[in-house]
Amino acid sequence: MSEYILHNYFRSTTSLRVRVALNMKGLAYEYVSYALLDKAHKSDAYLKLNPQGLVPAFEIKGQKLGNGTILTQSMAILEYLDEQHPEPPLLPKDALGRARVRALAQIIALDVHPINNLRVLHYIESEFGADGAAKKAWFLEWANAGMTALETRLQETETGLFCHGDTPSIADICLYAQMFNNERFGLDITPYPTIMGILNQCGKLVAFTDAAPMVQPDAPKT
Length: 222
Ligand SMILES: N[C@@H](CCC(=O)N[C@@H](CS)C(=O)NCC(=O)O)C(=O)O
Known about the structure:
binds glutathione, 9 helices, single chain, 8% strand, Glutaredoxin, alpha+beta, 4 strands
């Protein structure tokens, strides 16, 4: 019996972040799917788990912390998992290293992902008439801005096989997850050779590939 339930969706990149971390830590979990296109994440039942109506939500069975047996916000969940299950670490041991890794992760988690999220794309469509081409242009503008900044930061000496040294951290997790959105919108990755190299390293790790959208139980069978 697993201790955790991940309320998520195969294509959700924030869910994917948590799946990678769980895999890295070797933690089993129950997978509960909410089809975003069917608005399952806006159901009353799901809003009780996460009033934001966003996936993922992470349930710890049998814990009584007030009402808070449900964790939300993927980055908070990653840090919780890292604190509870320190091996292998998702953050460096030194404070400067942690600040660097969090900054790299946040380029994606705070400055790219939120403005390219499904609800934002729906909103610019319904309120401002953005068609498919306009939504793609919107996505690419902000994703390329983030990738450009990240590629520049990755020229720093702390970068190794991964974003920080030779082991994966939350920065690599965010980058790997973002890659799937980038691909869906046809972002050209070739201007970002360091990012490409790091993604290649992530792709060698089963913890990452097992978290990929198309191998999840709710992914469409092809
Ligand atoms: N900051 C939140 C963002 C969660 C989020 O935006 N999840 C997306 C899927 S990747 C979602 O639920 N989107 C549904 C929508 O936009 O309606 C986190 O990191 O957990």
